[in-house]
């Protein structure tokens, strides 16, 4: 019995020693670890927000965790900028069951020879909106109807408005929705001043169209 007790005490002492000498060197790194867990810094442009550090070596731990949770990975900002909108241009939460106009004064600024852009809508579970047309995004490779000056509007609503082809479906109920614009191969000026980059306004329309 005494030998067994002595053996257990020795195990505890050894375990404590190993734990102590493993833990102590980490103490000096705790401030650095905590600093890296800070919330990701976002760039805002109207109702749109993006992180210019996503996909890069300077991305915070929180930002990396978000990317790992919501997707398999992300490109660095010189390859792609991911703009997300949770609200309209007045600050009201985007929801299904309503009609919104996404007003582009001009198309997103990308390297046209190698880049492309797309606008997607996600429901409250981060999935595309099921619809008979199987339409889940619109972009530079879509047959968008534009004005003579190059401006255009994309409509977001549960049902397609009459005589409108620039349309993306949203849920019929009032669950929160998220808009995302992906800009692949953005122009240098977007990277230098992303908050000045021309982004569309999001306007809620009360009347039926």
List its salient traits:
single chain, 209 residues, alpha+beta, Jelly Rolls, 6-stranded antiparallel β-sheet, 4-stranded mixed β-sheet, 4 helices, globular
Poorly predicted ranges (pLDDT <50, ≥5 residues)?
A: 4-38
- Examine the coordinates and then state which fold CATH places here, giving the name of the CATH topology of the domain at 77-205: Jelly Rolls
Strand content: 15-25%
- Terminal-residue CA separation: 87 Å
CATH class of the domain at 77-205: Mainly Beta
Sheet with most strands: strand arrangement:
1-2-3-9-5-6
Helix and strand element order: HHEEHEEEEEEEHE
Oligomer: single chain
* Net shape: globular
Number of helices: 4
Q: How many β-strand stretches?
A: 10
- Largest beta-sheet details: 6 strands, antiparallel
Please characterize this protein's 3D structure:
With 209 residues, this protein is an alpha+beta fold. The protein has a domain at 77-205: Domain of unknown function DUF1214, C-terminal domain (Jelly Rolls, Sandwich), CATH 2.60.120.600. The protein is built from four helices and ten strands. It has helices at 2-27, 30-36, 61-70, 188-192; strands at 43-45, 48-50, 80-85, 99-104, 116-122, 137-139, 152-157, 167-169, 178-184, 201-205. The longest helix is centred in the first third of the chain and has 26 residues, at 2-27. The termini are far apart. 20% of the residues are buried. Mean pLDDT is 82; it is low at 4-38.
